[in-house]
Every structure is written in structure tokens, then in C-alpha cells.
Design brief:
alpha/beta, eight-stranded mixed sheet, four-stranded antiparallel sheet, 25 helices, 11% strand, globular, disordered N terminus
Length: 617
């Protein structure tokens, strides 16, 4: 008893939100299953909603009513500072179902490493796309523990599972005495055809968007989608109650990323990565609690395993934030990488007040061409207003031809992330601190995102799996070097870039070539010409594009020659390189038109875009 008292006294100081952790400690210590003691195992349910930010009643939204979600929050835990580690579906879901950072597992690029559908076709690489044997996915761990495991129904993972993950889609088919691990995937913000509830006239848009009727109408329809989602959640909870399982079930609800908008989905601003998260524990434990500490969505995996009495594997990077001895996160981390045919690399670190964003491809705009984004009416309207000169300075920022390499925001005083403090003298110390934290985390977690995707795919193919390749060897030096070569490019250090072209590391040579072209380094032509004969195809592409930027347009033919490279990612990079060169590639329009029949969907998209553009010309 002395030990119990000591534990509870120690926990008194860890209060937060409306309820204190002390209250939970009593229920956690004596509740069945939390510590592996009890009559029956805990059921676990994940409700994952697409494309939505925290715009519901219990988070302060007033234009719609969400009674079921609000009740769930009253009966459980509402997390006010929950974040996804990736702001796009497949990367977020790959992290979710593995409990790992997508950048560690090598599943960070959206719609990659699949054998069918979007991103499929790279047949020679399918073996390396399989999850390594050393990694057991969360559904597999539950299945091995005797759970009936279901998913209804979206997966969208950036890997090929090595086993059947789910028994089916309907948890109701489970025997009454078998515990369930059930996932529900709800359309959420993608359901813009839901019944109307929100009044567009009362919508107040974030200040970084223009106040336009089309945008207000779209935002209202997005809010309407939350009303429909609320009803779906109510039905899920009701079904669990009817089946007699609700009081023995831990229900976790969150969204896979923020609302789909110009600065939301696919980007690292709050609109893209901050999500609602509500947890209803068995028996309504900790009802009415509000958690204000920082939480990552991969933490749900660790919490779920612990509640079920399943050992948390060492590879799981999420943390059990329901544990009585849990120490609050000081930082959360997130990353955005290639989304469909749009190549980009961003990382961020956020503490309770500040956010630091690192744009590793600052030489390209926020609004790069994207079939997905550009197909949205709201984006078309904003683009049109920009062309007409009707956006203010803040609203026009996404259309700048280049971005700052670093962004720093004081979220306490600037919740909409409008004022970049990275160049402010009074914030240089904080900037340096956040930069150091991010780089250290990238190194510690073996973030493979700075390795150009065509090169990374070849590494994975040669090693059998990219995660295993980087697990077996210390690549921290490579991570630091890639950060350094990109930084050298940003400050136009031509001498250092030229030296890096001699590196034995292909990724280093690649980035050196890219930045020599971006900076149009005059004395680099001879070096770049040598790189066009590099044994690595992606480097040949980067060098050819750089030479084109330096006026050597004969190198366009080299880019054309790489469109049909056996590594389909090389072909996509070649097409994107041509697109970035403007109308120079028009002389090869026939070859580019032929790429509309590429095996790779994202190559086809670029080819279609260029073909349509030049046909109109």
C-alpha cells in the first residue's frame, strides 16, 4: 500500500485540463485490462475521419451542432493539442497503422509503394515495398493476441502488407466472447454533398483566405460534412451499446489530417496537421477530461496496445499518453513529402507556443502544379484572384515563386501563422533552438525523406526493404550532410556545392546538381556535364535540368530519354524537370504526349498537363 500511496502522491503534481491525472490514476490502477489483470480484455475501436480539422461543437464551432461528438467528449477525453505526423491520407494512415513516423519506415511519399491503383506499376520494386518481417503492424499485433480485427474499409497504405491484416469489415461478425479491434474510416470532409446546415453568410474564413462567396459556400459545405459525420459516430456508438460492448471498449476518434484547402491538407500549417482527438475509455473513465499537452496521432497505437495488454514493440515510436507515469511531449514533429506528382519536402517541429517549418525545397512555390489541388474550385478562385491582383500580401504568399527556407511562428500571438519570425533579430535564439531540435530528431529517427525518391527506391530494392537498409547501418552522417548541401544551395555557396558533386553518396551529388542549376552557377557547366554521365539516373536528370537552366537546352533530349526509365520514379522526375523549364520542352511535345500512356499515374498527369497546355498554345 505504501507503493500505491507514493505513486498517487507523485502524480498529484501532473494535473492538466478540467480533471486531474490523479483521478485517472485511481481508475487506471484498479480497472481491468489496463495492467493486464481482469476478467475480460478491452475492445478497441478507431474512428478515423478524412480531411477535417477541429470544427465541431466541443472544440468551439458554433455554426453547426455535433451532439454525438460533444457527448463523446463529455464522456471521455478531449485532446486540444493533437497533431498528425503527416498532412496527407496515405502517409498519415501508414504512420497510424504502424505506430511509426512515416519518414522512418520509408512510407512518407503519398501514394507510393503500392502494387495497384494510384502509384502502382513499378513492378520490379514490389518486393521491397513489403513491410519487413521485423515490423508487425498494429492490426497484426491485435490479431496475434486473439482479437477479431476489422476495417471498414479504406486502407491507403504506402506499403504492401505481408499478411492479411483484417478478418473483414464488420466487427459484428465476431463471436460474442472474442474481443474486437475495429477501425471505421469515415468520409468526413470529403462529403461535400451532405445536407445543408451551415449558413455560408455566417462563415468567417481564416484571414489567409480571401472573403469570397465560393470559398464561404465551400467552407459551409465542409461544416455540413461534420454534421453527417456526427450522425455516423452516433450510430457506431449505439451499435456498440446494443451489442453490450460499449462499456468495455476504448474508442479513439481523430482525423487523418486537416481540412482540404490551399494551406490545409498537404501542408504543415495548423490547418493541415492539427486534428480533433476524442477518447472514450471503458466505463467512461476520466469523463470530461481535457488534455492540453502535445499528442501525435501515432501515440494512439501505443495507447491501444497497452489498453489491450499487448506488449508495445520496440519499433513503435508512438507513446502511451494514458499511462500514469507518462511524461508530456515537449515537441511534436510532422513532415510533408511528395504528394501525387508534386514533389516537395517540408519538416516542422512545434512546442506549446512556437512552430518551426523547414522548407527543404524552398526554390519551388507553395502552389506547385497539382492535379488534385488545382482541380478544386476554391483553389481556382484563389488563383484567379491572385492573377487579378485582388489578394492582400498574406493571401498572395502561396503564389510566391520561392519560399523562405525557414518559417517560425509564435502561435500564442499569431495563431493563423501570418508573421514569419525567422528573420526577426529578437527570435534568432528560438529559431536556432527549434532548428537544432528538428535536425536532431531527423537524425535520431533515421528520416529518409531527403534522399531523392528514385534513389531511395533503388536502395530499397537492393537491400530488400528501405527501412531495413537504414536500420542496419548508421546513416546519421548522411542526414547531416544532405541538410548541409541543401543549406549551401540556399545561401548560394557555389564552391561547397561543386565540392559536394564529388561525394560518393548519390543523394549528395543529386542535391548539389539541383542547387547548381537553381542558382545558375556559371562555372559549374563542366561539372554538371560530367554528372550527366553519372551511373545514377536521377543525378543525370538533375544535371540535365541544371544545364538547361544555364542555357544548354540541348540537354532537354537527355530528360526526354529518361521518361521511360525502368525506375518509374525517374521518369516522373524527368517530366517534372521539363515542366519546371516552362515552354522549353515544347519542341519535344510528341515524346511528352506519348508519356500520357506511361505505366505510372503521376507521370501521366504531368504529361497530360503539358500536352493540354501546349495544345491550347
Amino acid at each position: 500500500m505504501k507503493t500505491l500511496i507514493q505513486i498517487l502522491i507523485g502524480l498529484v503534481v501532473l494535473g492538466f485540463g478540467k480533471k486531474r491525472l490523479l483521478l485517472f490514476s485511481f481508475s487506471a490502477l484498479f480497472a481491468p485490462n489496463v495492467w493486464g489483470v481482469g476478467l475480460a480484455p478491452v475492445n478497441v475501436v478507431w474512428i478515423v475521419i478524412e480531411d477535417a480539422s477541429p470544427h465541431i461543437g466541443c472544440y468551439g464551432e458554433t455554426l453547426i451542432k455535433t451532439p454525438h461528438l460533444d457527448r463523446m467528449a463529455r464522456e471521455g477525453i478531449r485532446c486540444s493539442s493533437a497533431f498528425v505526423t503527416a498532412p496527407v491520407c496515405s502517409s498519415s494512415r501508414s504512420a497510424m497503422v504502424s505506430g511509426m513516423y512515416q519518414t522512418t519506415l520509408g512510407v512518407h511519399n503519398h501514394r507510393s509503394q503500392v502494387s495497384s491503383g494510384k502509384g502502382g506499376g513499378n513492378v520490379a520494386y514490389y518486393d521491397s515495398y513489403k513491410v519487413p518481417k521485423s515490423v508487425k503492424l498494429i492490426p497484426e499485433l491485435f490479431r496475434d493476441a486473439g482479437y477479431y480485427v476489422t476495417n471498414k474499409s479504406k486502407t491507403d497504405y504506402n506499403f504492401i502488407p505481408t499478411s492479411k491484416l483484417y478478418h473483414g469489415s464488420d466487427w459484428k461478425k465476431a463471436p460474442g466472447n472474442q474481443p474486437i479491434f475495429a477501425q471505421f474510416q469515415l468520409k468526413g470532409g470529403k462529403n461535400r454533398k451532405a445536407q445543408s446546415h451551415a449558413d455560408p453568410g455566417k462563415v468567417i474564413l481564416p484571414p489567409y483566405y480571401p472573403d469570397h462567396p465560393e470559398l464561404r459556400q465551400d467552407w459551409a459545405k465542409y461544416l455540413d460534412s461534420w454534421v453527417e459525420t456526427d450522425k455516423e459516430v452516433g450510430r457506431i456508438l449505439a451499435d456498440l451499446k446494443i451489442a453490450g460492448r460499449l462499456d468495455s471498449t476504448a474508442v479513439f476518434l481523430w482525423t487523418d489530417h486537416g481540412v482540404s484547402h490551399l494551406r490545409g491538407k498537404q501542408f504543415l500549417y495548423e490547418e493541415g496537421i492539427r486534428v480533433p482527438m476524442i477518447i472514450r475509455l471503458p466505463g467512461k473513465q476520466r469523463a470530461g477530461t481535457v488534455r492540453d499537452d502535445l499528442i501525435e496521432h501515432i501515440d494512439v497505437a501505443a495507447c491501444s496496445l497497452k489498453l489491450a495488454g499487448i506488449r508495445i514493440p520496440d519499433n513503435v515510436q508512438g507513446r502511451d499518453f494514458l499511462a500514469p507515469d507518462y511524461k508530456f511531449r515537449e515537441f511534436i514533429f510532422a513532415g510533408r513529402d511528395r504528394c501525387d506528382e508534386t514533389v516537395d519536402i517540408l519538416r516542422c517541429v512545434r512546442d506549446s507556443r512556437y512552430k518551426y517549418v523547414r522548407n527543404f525545397m524552398s526554390h519551388v512555390p507553395h502552389t506547385q502544379p497539382s492535379q488534385y489541388k488545382d482541380g478544386k474550385k476554391i483553389v481556382q478562385v484563389i488563383r484567379g484572384l491572385h492573377k487579378e491582383g485582388k489578394l492582400n500580401d498574406q493571401q498572395a504568399l502561396p503564389f510566391a515563386l520561392r519560399r523562405p527556407p525557414e518559417e517560425l511562428y509564435d502561435l500564442q500571438n499569431d495563431p493563423h501563422e501570418l508573421v514569419n519570425l525567422s528573420i526577426t533579430p529578437t527570435h534568432q535564439k528560438k529559431l536556432a533552438t527549434m532548428r537544432k531540435v528538428l535536425y536532431q530528431r531527423m537524425t535520431e529517427t533515421r528520416d529518409v525523406g531527403l534522399i531523392p525518391e528514385p534513389i531511395l527506391e533503388d536502395v530499397g530494392r537492393e537491400a530488400g526493404n528501405k527501412y531495413q537498409a537504414f536500420l542496419d547501418n548508421d546513416h546519421s552522417g548522411q542526414t547531416r550532410r544532405l541538410i548541409d548541401v541543401i543549406t549551401a544551395g540556399e545561401v548560394n555557396d557555389g564552391a561547397k556545392l561543386l565540392e559536394y558533386t564529388k561525394s560518393p553518396d548519390p543523394s549528395t551529388r543529386y542535391w548539389a546538381a539541383v542547387w547548381l542549376g537553381v542558382n545558375k552557377t556559371a562555372d559549374s557547366k563542366a561539372t554538371l556535364l560530367k554528372l550527366t554521365a553519372d551511373p545514377v539516373p536521377a543525378i543525370r536528370v538533375a544535371a540535365a535540368q541544371a544545364l538547361c537552366k544555364l542555357g544548354e537546352l540541348s540537354q532537354l533530349k537527355r530528360l526526354i530519354d529518361h521518361i521511360n526509365d525502368p525506375n518509374l520514379l525517374v521518369g516522373m522526375f524527368a517530366l517534372r524537370a521539363i515542366e519546371e523549364l516552362g515552354d522549353a520542352g515544347k519542341v519535344h511535345r510528341a515524346d511528352i504526349a506519348a508519356a500520357q500512356k506511361s505505366k505510372y499515374e503521376f507521370s501521366r498527369r504531368i504529361a497530360r498537363r503539358l500536352t493540354a497546355k501546349w495544345r491550347l498554345d
